[in-house]
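User: Let's play a game. I give you a shape written as tokens, and you guess the letters that built it. Ready? Here's round one.
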């Protein structure tokens, strides 16, 4: 019986940027009808960064366009927790560290075994250091189809995927989030714990990364402590904001633990807009 190892290939134009990218799989084979994960692995040389799903006022996020065999479906990129990065003097949201951009692939149920399937994707990105470089590439990954009862993990990649899963921010349980726009055009994001025991220490630092173009990434986010252990962040609006939606969504970062045994520092929040609702002022 032949031994087949998954092979990822890419034709990449990084335009002088000191990054490396390749497409890898968590499994060594595809099981009919069983979802599995692949990832775009991004390595940054010191001093370089790429961008998060919503980079702020500058930058372009990584994008993948899939070309899959008939019956296959790809989910969205599962974005790891972001970092503040600098493009010149401007603060944006992205990654300096190496990351895996996870994507779940679902194969069709009726997929013949003992064949090889090739997954293809086109990638586009922006990488920056002292200068910025757009890049693009064609990625492909070939995997055999095997009718097995359990996943056939790739021993070299599976631990990387487990670690990457830990970088996916969970929801913020036990807290209520709301947001409003004040008369000055500032966004007032409030977080209240349902139990005072969940409150973070007063000296803790908070920061909000928005999923949409509503928050200016290069402005400070002053914190006001509220009674009962709550906080309010004052956010400057995006220069040319998107239309106001029903909720403001994003990732909140806290420098301290939000409960006994809570290991996470980044959480997804979805804050409904309080009425009356005002559109942020454009310059």
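Assistant: Ready! My guess for every position:
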């Amino acid at each position: 019986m032949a031994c087949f190892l998954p092979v990822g290939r890419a034709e990449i134009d990084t335009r002088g940027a000191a990054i490396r990218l390749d497409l890898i799989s968590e499994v060594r084979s595809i099981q009919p009808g069983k979802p599995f994960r692949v990832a775009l692995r991004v390595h940054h040389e010191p001093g370089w960064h790429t961008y998060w799903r919503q980079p702020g006022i500058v930058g372009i996020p990584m994008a993948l366009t899939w070309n899959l065999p008939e019956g296959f479906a790809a989910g969205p990129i599962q974005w790891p927790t972001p970092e503040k990065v600098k493009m010149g003097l401007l603060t944006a949201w992205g990654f300096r560290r190496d990351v895996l951009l996870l994507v779940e692939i679902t194969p069709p149920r009726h997929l013949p075994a003992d064949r090889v399937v090739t997954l293809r994707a086109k990638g586009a990105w922006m990488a920056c250091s002292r200068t910025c470089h757009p890049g693009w590439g064609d990625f492909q990954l070939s995997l055999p189809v095997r009718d097995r009862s359990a996943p056939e993990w790739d021993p070299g990649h599976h631990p990387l995927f487990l670690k990457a899963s830990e970088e996916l921010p969970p929801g913020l349980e036990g807290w209520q989030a709301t947001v409003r726009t004040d008369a000055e055009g500032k966004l007032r994001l409030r977080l209240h714990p349902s139990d005072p025991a969940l409150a973070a220490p007063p000296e803790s630092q908070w920061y909000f990364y928005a999923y949409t173009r509503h928050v200016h990434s290069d402005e400070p986010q002053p914190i006001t402590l509220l009674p009962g252990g709550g906080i309010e962040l004052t956010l400057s609006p995006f220069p040319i904001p998107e239309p106001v939606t029903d909720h403001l969504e994003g990732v909140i970062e806290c420098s301290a633990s939000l409960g006994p045994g809570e290991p996470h520092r980044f959480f997804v929040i979805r804050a409904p807009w309080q009425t009356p609702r005002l559109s942020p002022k454009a310059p």
